[in-house]
Design goal:
about 100 residues; about 20% strand
C-alpha cells in the first residue's frame, strides 16, 4: 500500500573528474565542479561532453556568477601535460610545503 512513489534513475557514467575542487572560478573564486552534457548529433550518435562549471552558478544561479565552463578534456590535458615539469620544480615544492603548514 505504501510503495515507494518516487523513482531515482541510476547514474550510469564511466567518466572521472580528477580536477574537481582544484580548479577555481576566475570570477568569484569558487571551485569548479563536474558537469556533463549529453548531445545527439545529426547522424544520431550520442556524445557525452564533460565540463567543469562554477559551483556558485550551478547551486545559486546566474545572479551570483556566470557559468565559466571549461571543457574537461582540454583542461585535463593541459594540466597533466605540465604536471611532470611542475613536480620536478623546487620552487613548486617550497610553495606547496608553505601552504600545508
Amino acid at each position: 500500500m505504501f510503495a515507494k512513489k518516487s523513482f531515482s534513475p541510476s547514474r550510469v557514467f564511466e567518466g572521472t573528474y580528477p580536477l574537481t575542487g582544484f580548479l577555481r572560478c576566475p570570477q568569484c573564486g569558487t571551485t569548479l565542479g563536474a558537469h556533463r552534457v549529453r548531445d545527439t548529433l545529426k547522424d544520431g550518435t550520442v556524445v557525452n561532453r564533460r565540463y567543469y562549471v562554477c559551483n556558485s552558478f550551478r547551486n545559486r544561479g546566474s545572479r551570483v556568477c556566470s557559468s565559466n565552463s571549461v571543457r574537461a578534456d582540454m583542461v585535463e590535458s593541459f594540466v597533466f601535460s605540465g604536471f611532470p615539469r611542475l613536480s620536478r620544480s623546487r620552487k613548486c615544492w617550497r610553495t606547496s610545503s608553505r601552504r600545508s603548514t
